[in-house]
Amino acid sequence: MKKLTEEERRIIEDKGTEAPFSGEYWDNHESGMYSCKKCGAKLFSSETKFDSNTGWPSFDEALPGATKEVPDMDGMRTEITCAKCGAHLGHKFDGEGFTNKNVRHCINSACLTFQPKDHKDES
């Protein structure tokens, strides 16, 4: 598990939210893979990322088995967590009409790391 900053811990472990348009990846348009900041599990492909103009990275599909959906404590939303480590990632919204899949995974940038597609692992 990665050591988290205070802000990352506030969002990932205490289920916080970063301010809109403040995160590193809300406007990222590079091809690649988004992974969990806490455990490194792959979560979302850039191919499913879209511009929602909400200020947070938005995806219309997670990688199979990568996330879990649980009723939020407020009883109105669906929380998205990392299936591997349980890290809070954000929330899922249905029926907004942004894409043909009609779903938006609204994710905090602080919960993600990004690996560009053309990046070569040095082993």
Describe what this molecule looks like in 3D.
The structure is a single chain. With 123 residues, the protein is mainly beta. It has one domain: Beta Complex (Metal Binding Protein, Guanine Nucleotide Exchange Factor, Chain A), CATH 2.170.150. Helices cover 6% and strands 33% of the residues. It is built from one helix and nine strands; from the N terminus they run αβββββββββ. The longest helix is centred in the N-terminal third of the chain and has 7 residues, at 6-12.
How many structurally independent domains?
A: 1
The quaternary state of the protein chains shown equals single chain
Compute the number of helices. Answer: 1
Distance between the termini: 20 Å
Helix and strand pattern: HEEEEEEEEE
The CATH architecture can be named as Beta Complex
CATH fourth-tier homologous superfamily: Peptide methionine sulfoxide reductase
Named CATH topology: Metal Binding Protein, Guanine Nucleotide Exchange Factor, Chain A
Q: What shape does the CA trace take?
A: globular
Unreliably modeled segments: none
Question: TL;DR?
Answer:
By secondary structure, the chain is mostly beta strands. It has one helix and nine strands, in the order H-E-E-E-E-E-E-E-E-E.
Strand and helix layout:
Blueprint lengths: L5 H7 L19 E5 L5 E4 L3 E2 L7 E2 L7 E5 L6 E5 L5 E7 L8 E5 L4 E5 L7
Antiparallel strand pairs: 1-2, 1-9, 3-4, 4-8, 5-6, 6-7, 7-8
Feature tags:
mainly beta, six-stranded antiparallel β-sheet, Metal Binding Protein, Guanine Nucleotide Exchange Factor, Chain A, 1 helix, three-stranded antiparallel β-sheet, globular, about 120 residues
